[in-house]
Amino acid sequence: MTNPSKKDWSRLLEDALWAHGTAYRTSLGMSPYQIVFGKTYHLLRKFQLQELDELRLEAYKNSRIYKQKVKKLHDQQILRKDLQIGQKLIPGKLCSRWDGPFVITNIFPYGAVQLKDEQSNNTFQVNGHQIKPFYEGPAPII
């Protein structure tokens, strides 16, 4: 605590008295601070830990509120598609522009759709968000 020459004791006196006054005494059943002031000495660290817990809980609540707001905004941006079995579609980015149209053969829960290629009779599943409706225009007159 002090150096060998013991000349810096006055600098450390305040800390030593604080430690002596707040330390628990087995013979007294309490600290001298508690005898003098009638209450226990609360270390600043305990307050910091409580404050840290409160800040953590507040951050958790704010995070949950933020996630709810983001989910609400995201859900508003999603376009709901009315898909029916037998409807003709183009599978968006999944195939070449020259492939298709494909026909819906089955609609699964959570947005998955089974499509059938009319030319080769192959079936495959795609995400319902990645398909686009196919509109047949009038036949060209040659």
Keywords:
five-stranded antiparallel beta sheet, alpha+beta, 3 domains, single chain, rod-shaped, 142 residues
Short description:
The chain is an alpha+beta fold.
Report on the structure:
With 142 residues, this protein is α+β, with helices and mostly antiparallel strands. The protein has 3 domains: 7-41, no CATH class; 43-78; 88-133. 38% of the residues lie in helices and 15% in strands. The chain contains 3 helices and 5 strands. The chain has helices at residues 9-22, 32-37, 44-77; strands at 88-90, 102-107, 112-117, 123-127, 132-133. It has a 5-stranded antiparallel sheet, with no helix packed on it. The longest helix has 34 residues, at 44-77. The mean pLDDT is 76. GO terms for molecular function: nucleic acid binding. InterPro entries: Gypsy_RT_Integrase-like, RNaseH_sf.
Main sheet properties:
5 strands, antiparallel
Which segments are poorly predicted (pLDDT under 50) over 5 or more consecutive residues? none
Strand order of the largest sheet: 4-3-2-1-5
Q: What integer value in Å does the Rg equal?
A: 37 Å
- Any idea what the shape is? rod-shaped
Give the N-to-C terminal Cα separation.
103 Å
Tell me the number of strands: 5
GO molecular function: nucleic acid binding
